[in-house]
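Supplementary Text 2. Reproducibility record for the structural model of the 346-residue chain.

All settings were left at their defaults, and a single model was retained for analysis rather than an ensemble. We include the record here because the model underlies the residue-level annotations in Supplementary Table 4.
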Amino acid sequence: MRELRALAGYVEKQVSSASCTPLVIDAKAQLDTAERTVLEARWFWRGSAVDGALANMNAAHALLLQVMPRQDLRAMLPDLVAVIESHLPPHDRRRVTTVGVARESGTGPADSPPPRQADEGAPGGDGNGRLPTVVERRTIAEAMRASYRVQESEVIRERSFTYLVYKWAGGLFAVTVLIALLAFWFPNALPLCFHPVPPVPPTHHAVVCPTGGAPNPGALPVQGWDYLVVELAGLIAAAVTGAATLQQLHGTATASNVPITLAVLKLPTGALTAVLGILLMRGQFLPGLTALDTSAQIIAWAIIFGAAQQLFTRFVDERGTAVMRAVPAPGPDLPRKSENRTPYRT
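Retained model, structure tokens:
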């Protein structure tokens, strides 16, 4: 923000044409809007405010590129070309024009064709390569504006994905809490108990539940927090496996934190998969694993099923990784995955 304000002040002093002054004024107004958007945003919507401020800053930068001195624009061409190549496809004519201007201005790589030298003191030349013309300057600004639009659309897509995952996580958390409350109010409706045959010493429990057992087959030592214990075991297991998978995800430069969002989704998913897995075992869905002997075995299987949530959430992880990779990288050395970029080449 401060850098753009300094650039706007510098360009304002260099502008001599009356037709260019309104563009500088508009650019400074865009920067004021960006700053006001962030300062006035509430904490919950701070991410959207940051993205909105970035859009205003990008618009201000594109406006300043249209009116800044051409020698300054030439000095900025390497960075501008890197950004344009990271966003626009190779066949885009605005990109082709910008790359051609960079070559002829002498800002291309060492293997580029030698630039057309302008005579010392000639209009538009200083002996270091050709300066962009007024028309080319406008084309470069339009290429940057198009690049920023691509970036902003990808950022919006990433934010929409984040909000969707948060909504799903909130819904699953609500279901998890509802199941725990129903189990507490109606503990005998669907108990998570098993009947070892024969009773296993030294306890000789004929009925085993997550929080206790009973030697009498006709008695159910059901407790109201049986489901809660199983859900907590699954949630903790999901948190551990989620922390292990975070190292495979790389964050982005945007305000949306997709890896943390994906980790939050794993927590209620692990709690629910733990409960569902124990219910499947109680319903003899897995032959040979239908009569757990102790409460510790029930909790152990709840942990296993909670960790197994990774089998379901990995599809969401893959989608989140694809969304993050689609967001254009902030630096010139981090091209988009869909394109193996070679600088200054078309």
